[in-house]
Sequence to fold (1769 residues):
Amino acid sequence: MQEGINKKQTSLWKEYRRHAAPGLRGAPGNVSRWKPKPTSDSEGKEENLSPPASAGANLDETSVDPWEIDVPNKSQVPSRSPASLPHSSLFLSPSYSTSTIPLPRERNPATERSFIETPSDYPQKGTRDQHRQERDTDASLQHLTNFIDVDGQADIGDDDDEVGYEECVYFTPPSFSISSEDSATTTEQPQEVLGEVQHVVETVLTVLVKDINDNAPVFPNTTIYGKVEENGAANLSVAVVAAWDADDASEGTNARLTYSIEKNVIDERSGDAIFAVHPETGLVRTSLCCLDRETTPEYHIQVVATDGGGQKGTGTVVIRLSDVNDNSPRLARKQWNLTVQETWGEQEPENTTLLEIAAADRDTSNYFHYRVVKESGWGWEHFGIRTVGAVGQLYPIRNMDYEDVRHREGFKFMVQVTDRGRGGWTDPLHLDSGWISVKLKDVNDNPPEFIRPHAHVTVREDAAPGTLLATLPAHDPDMAGKQEVDYWVEGGWGALKVDGEGSVTLWRALDRETPGGAAGMALLVAVDRGVPPLTATATLSLTVTDVNDCAPTLLPPTVFHVPEDSPPTMLGVLKATDKDMWTLGHGPPFNLSLSPSNPDHVLASVSLKFDPLLDSGRGGAELWTVGGLDREEWPALEVNVSVGDAGGMWSSHIVVVVVTDLNDHPMKPAAKTVYLWKTQGGGSEAPLGRVYVEDPDDWDAADKTYAWDGPAHPMFSLHPQEGTIFAASMVREGSYALRFKVSDKAWGQEDVAANVTVVVRDLSPDALAHATPVTLTPTTPEHLTRGWTPKGGGGGLGTVLEEVLKALGNQSNNYKVQVVSVYGSSSPYHTDHTAQQRLGQHSYYNYNRHADEGKAGENGTGEEEQGEDAVYPPPPPFACVWLSVVAPDGVFLNPTRLQGILGLHVQQMEEATKLRVNLEPPKEAERRLEDMDASLTDLQPGDPSSVASLASTTLPLQVVDANTTSLVTPRLTRALPCRAHDPETCTPSSCLNGGRCLPTSAGNRCVCPGGAEGWQCKVLARTFLGSGWAWVPPPPRCLPTTLSLRLLTRSPHALLLYSGPMAPTHRPKDTAPTPMLALQLRQGRPQLLVEGGLEPMKVEVNATLTDGEWHHLHFRLDVQGVALMVDHCGHGWERPNQTYTHCLGRRAWANPLGWGAWPGSGPLQVGGMAHRPPTAEEHRWAEAPLPHPLHGCLSHLTVNGQLVDLGQPAHSGGSTAGCRPQETACFEEEGGCGHRGRCVSGLNYPECECHPGWFGVGCSTPSPSTTLGRGSYMRVALSFTPSPTSLRLQARLRTWGRASGALLHVAAQHHAAAFTLHLRSGIVCVSLTGAGVGLREACVEGRSVGDGAWHTVFGERHGVNLLVGVDDGDGWRRNDSLVSLQEWHGRGRGRGDGRGDALPFPPPVPILVDKHEGVTVGGRPKSEGGEVVDVTEDLADVCIDDVRVNGRHLPLPPAANGTSWGQVTTARNLTQGCVTPDPCINATCSPPLSCSAASTWDQPACSCGSGRLLVGRRCEDVDECLWNPCLHGGTCTNLRPGYLCLCGPTHAGDHCQWSTRTHAPSALTLPAVLAVSLVALLILVFVVSLRLHRRGSLCMRSRSEEEASGGKLTLMEMKAGRRRGGRGVDDPGGGGKGESSRRKSLQKDNSPDSFLVRLRLKFSGQGSSSCEARATRRSSSGSRRGSGSHRGGASPPPVTPVMVTPDLARDDLRAYAYEGDESSSGSLTSAIAELKIISAREEGDTGGGGEAALAADLHPSSSSRGSWRWSIC
Fold:
């Protein structure tokens, strides 16, 4: 029984150790208490395990609860809890106690003692319970002895030995004590246990444990490192190894260790071991000498420690050899061949590193030092070497001049390196040598040198153009004297030119008489073609000898006054002068006489008495009147006086004799009509002229007084002394009869009747905006309007209007010409001196402002005192008439068109009027308008700035008083702004090309038809058919002026732009050439011709533009010169040493002052001329423009940043809107680009480019949007390579406020250069860093884009030029920083070929975009240690979509992580969609208004909602149909809210803006179409019924084929691989095999089966049939045609386009243009037509025009003519 109990206890103990003890490993003492729970035994009996009542009482910190067992913490127990173990049989009595004894690893008898505290005594009772307790105690003692063997070791079984715990738990019966030495002292304490009083006795038990050799030696470190010097002697100490043994060292030899080497290293030569170890100390030493680190730098040996019992422990010793400088250095090469640029100048050269020399040494610790060996070779003294780290840097210490013949041959010298051994440079074992050969590269360091720096030339004044003056050649020493030199000349009156040899010649005649013309100086500048160009200057001094080429002139005064009816009177003395040199006989004495060409009445009225002694013997003449003169007969006499000098030069001059008036005639009653043309908008009082009475006298105003004949009219006022009438500002249209009476005190007349009729007419804003000026010279406004009436015509003005009607052509009777304004200057002798003084504020020029009437009356001579400004005669009088023409349809004729038509008929107008005609307002009038008197400014305030703004401006009025009539009109001028800024809102007349102005929540906006775009619905392209032309407004009259355009043509000769005379005119020989500007192609190269200045200018660029690709052309005129640029200078830099000749040409004016404004007139003609080409002889040009019209396309014509509409030009012929060749190319290759795409990229590789916000097949999928959060960014890896010198970035964004941060960043590797599109306080900017330009930036400063609306932003880099724009890039929305076009540095002055080959800035540095890490959207992450620690330039709270790089779409996560052009590699803090907090959460609106943020994104706004308007206190529906929102004849139906447009069969879209026509219109009428459709339907039904029984499905195919293709059958699969190389649904990126593979034609299949298959597909397309017929187009946006070699990138991998268009938010502009697009028709005719077109496409176009021929027989669109399309807005 006892044995069974012992076994059971042992088993339970092992079970406890198995579950609880694993937590004790390595953590002794980390225990907690475990109290066993009572359980039932196997027999079902329950043992009482409850402790005595006093068992746990009064225990101190060292006491142990008798019923507790120390067990591991729960955290240390990996398996089940010890509490779950069975405990019923573990304890034999309730009096057990436990104690924990820690056991150290090294057993020590002193520490291997445990003290077991047990109860020592119990009270003795003679009860049965007491006997039972004693029995249990004996059993427990027996159980304990079974655990202890004779050696004192616990026998816990084999399992416990394997575990090896560090603690043992001893179970001790509490009822006895055991002591091996002393008996225990017992203390009896009565305690009550189980209702009885017991006594407890304690004792101490000491257990001694004896050590055995059960532990092997252990090395503390399994790897020991030692070190020994190489090349050392034997027996050198390496390391000391030491192991330890856990056994007791005092117990025999258990822990006595002996060391040995188990694995040693053997020397290959001797076979001996290299290392040895001392067996007792463990010292490792070398056994051999002379170990070589360079051969074996490290040794590994294995040592063994053995104890007395034979147990072993091993360790590894790693022995490293320390280096000793015992090896020689070796240079990387024995010779370096180096080419360096020459250095020049007197100063020492910069110590720039020319070459880095590296050396190698097998030793580890090397300290190299380099030097140039003295006198080792030619040129050694020019170089030095500095040691930097382990390399030597070669640098120049003396200048090296390529122009020195010896230096040009090169240098060769020796260099050495030492590792600084003991011997230094003298130790050959630590030295190495090499040779360096240096060749010089020539740089442009020498300016040209003139053979002679100064020359003096004397030339006759009449030297013919082309006369050689001097030859001053220059020589450039660079490039071995072969450097070419260009020349230009400065100064020399702008009359000199120089050729390529330095020969200076005249290009125009000299004029010694001009200021400074007698002697002058010219600078001849020579510039080489190096980079940067260097110049030299030579001086050419000129002396001009006089030729008697100037006729004598009269000195002032030349205007005299004489009273009428005066006796013969001497008017004055006429004196003469001559500009020629008098010392050469080219001056006095002068001879004066009356010219025989004078009229008879002049010869009879005046005489001239010549006296050679007058004027100090120079000769003069007295001017006399013969008798009295009658002013009423001849108010003034023009006397022609002939003047001759001593050399025989004669000239004629006009002397004016003004007859002053006397009041010698009485008044007579008269009537007058005043025509007042006033502008709308009021203003101040309008002057109407003076009351008229019939009186031949006109200088008697001081004798007259004026008064009303009856009551005064409330709308008019009268000045009683002057007789002037004024109309109130509020006078309305109509006719007013005014009655006045006039009195003359000189004649005693009173109350003479004078009636005035005032006709008032309001000029409409259109009449003002469409007015065109016609200036006539010499005449006055009074003379021109005399005899003219608005209804009857007549007079000179009537003749002008008749000629205008004749110029309008055959339908001139249907046109109506309106006179809008008439003004001008008076004649030098006004008909009424007093009136002129009183009404002078309404005239431009008062020629008699210095006359003194009293002085004339007193002296009788009338000699007028004039200042120096009257030396030259006054300019001739002029009259300027502004006309507008109303067409038969009631619309005003475009002013540009009217100006052009009149320009074609200038010669006829001059012949009819006998006057000089100019179609520009006179400069004199404009100058006088700016210098108006203060009195006029106070009387008529206003400052007109342009014709278009005159309607809302109070204009000053011009009074033209012709006595019986008076015409009062606003004074107009044409002051076109140099840079126009169109408003963002529209007006009913501002939307072009059929656009409609509609109000929106963001203001009025234009709804544009298909093909038009931008804020004004402009059409930007036009096709010219080889004989066409178009007129657009002329360039502004200001400088600088920049024009640009895009060109697509294959014709080598073409006139692109022309501004100049439209008809031949007579120009005297002494006048300047007619202003002319022409941009043309000659032999495919662009040329710019400019005439009209001091010299003709011709600029040409060496580039061919007839390759069928689009090319950009820019030209600029400023005060310094002209420049012409091709393709922004962003291409063609692949060749080394490329200059700017391939993209830029420029010439500067010989006279730096140049023009103040472009002097041209007439419309700017585009693509050709509407008239006979002018000749150079007619206009004194050096070269006339080409007569060849353009055959091709022009687009994006821009004048000073303003896009010009080419859809509806002012006038055109032989041209049409849009670029038809480009559109046709995309239709043939792409199947069209859809309504939201455009065809681009030229004729060779056409492709579709989607509108911003769209992509996919047919540009029908809206691009997903993404919101940038705080610290957001993404990186994209590109699958294509952008151009290194031309880059375009584009994105759409939506933000509010003044956001700042990076939007799109493209960088080269290591960010050496970068191009960034970013926002700066809401302003869009682009910046270019690196790329050889430092930092350059361009911004659209016009306005912030933070208005909550969607905006398209883009930035371009082309070479050194930057472009940035917003939306359509029109006007303020674009900024071009064209450095290469705008910056001048003194190049190209004077005449020449206009090359721009040697600009001072170098060619652009390419940006090789890092395709893996170089493209970042959003902020720029900053990384440290591979982790992002910060995001700089963070652009937060911005919604973006449609991000493109060079037109390729990039993915935007999380919606898409990849496209054909890029893959997202990293993304952070990006949210799909435009996510913003609801702005209306805290917003409150007063009823009936509600809060919304539809138009302002994240800003709250109170409104009635879409389509509703607040009227009073109610929100009422707005009838949008009143705005006519439906285009192209669509029918509008008002909804609540919104509206619906019902479109015709040929249009679609929200506003019927898109045309569905894709082919030429059909000639069939609608009834015929319906009849044909009915017949076709019957035939098809019959044929289909016959075919259906032959096969169950027309789309069936073999099972293997279906399985091979994934079980899907499409129409494209049935087409036998149609266009296998092109882009289809399965290959949107293109086949990449070029044009030949893309355009392979397929075999024709005209069988009925194929057609019926397509028909079946067509009809089943609306259902869920397994085969659907869909008209699929190849992917347009983001895909590129052709191979990568053609477009700079590889073809993308194929992707499957998404065909589903999700719903868009109403605030998205794409929804505004998308709804209602894909309306379907149910017409059978349209289905047949579409299927036939598909069939034709499958068959290919090998025969040419097959599809076009088929389309001619079909309807113009895929929809039925009888169907309607609709959409709800």
Q: What stands out?
A: The chain is about 15% helix and 30% strand.
